[in-house]
Amino acid sequence: MAAHVLLLEDDPAIARTVAYTLGRDGMAVTHSLLMHDARQQLQSRTFDLLVLDVGLPDGSGLDLLQDLRKGAVHRPGATATPVLVLSARGEELDRVLGLELGADDYLTKPFSPRELAARIKAVLRRAAVPMGVVASAGSAHSGFHDDAAGQRISLHGQPLALTRREYRLLACLLHGAGRIHGRETLLAAAWGNDSESTDRTVDTHIKTLRAKLRELDPTREYISTHRGMGYCLDA
Q: Which has the higher per-residue pLDDT, 138 or 128?
């Protein structure tokens, strides 16, 4: 089945070029000029990947990205939908911010449409297979249950609202419970070896994971920090 891409881009010329290029590769493209339109599209249908421009007349694609990752877009699967960010701002700080907010890739303008298509294909391939995590169909530990096939984890019978990256991080920690995992190991498990993400990205996602675990069980901290070494899910 052809991948369906939501393209949020306020420049019609760029949008036409991207839609034509992706269409030649067999992808379906829905184009939104404004944030408001994109939000409506996300509420009405499911997409395989989002391409979000940052500078828009009614906001920033990063705001939509943040809402997606927080679960503020109420549609099944929206939280974990892969996202590629387009931006005229190519400074390291801007790229890091986009990746830390949960983007799967970040491409600066001006860009080659063929490179964009290649990056989209790479993101879709990575999204299709959990990276670095080998798990059985279901696994339980210390109140956790991992439905590896559905990429869902519950704690004490209550499902955790996890993004795809958070799932991979927690699954890696869960299946090596009691063992300290270095940041490089966690990066490879959740982002893959070709990612531009950094140790700081892991720290940010661990912080979010802890907050979500605390919401379901405020009586204990499940993930401990080992300075200079990494993180561990306490057995």
A: 128
CATH class of 138-233: mainly alpha
CATH code 3.40.50.2300 region(s) in the chain: 4-128
- Residues 195 and 188: their CA atoms lie apart, in Å, by 8
CATH number for the domain formed by residue range(s) 4-128:
3.40.50.2300
pLDDT digits (tens, 9 = 90+) for 132-180: 443 443 444 568 888 877 778 888 888 898 888 888 889 888 887 788 8
The number of helices, as runs of H, and strands, as runs of E, in the chain is 8, 11
Q: How far apart, in Å, are the Cα atoms of 56 and each of 31, 51, 161, 199?
A: 14, 13, 29, 30
Residue 76: pLDDT over 70: no
Residue range(s) of every CATH 1.10.10.10 domain in the chain: 138-233
Q: How many CB atoms lie within 10 A of CB 179?
A: 12
**pTM exceeds cut of 0.90:** no
- Hey, what are 86's tokens? 């387009």
What is d(CA 161, CA 231) in angstroms, rounded to the nearest whole number? 21
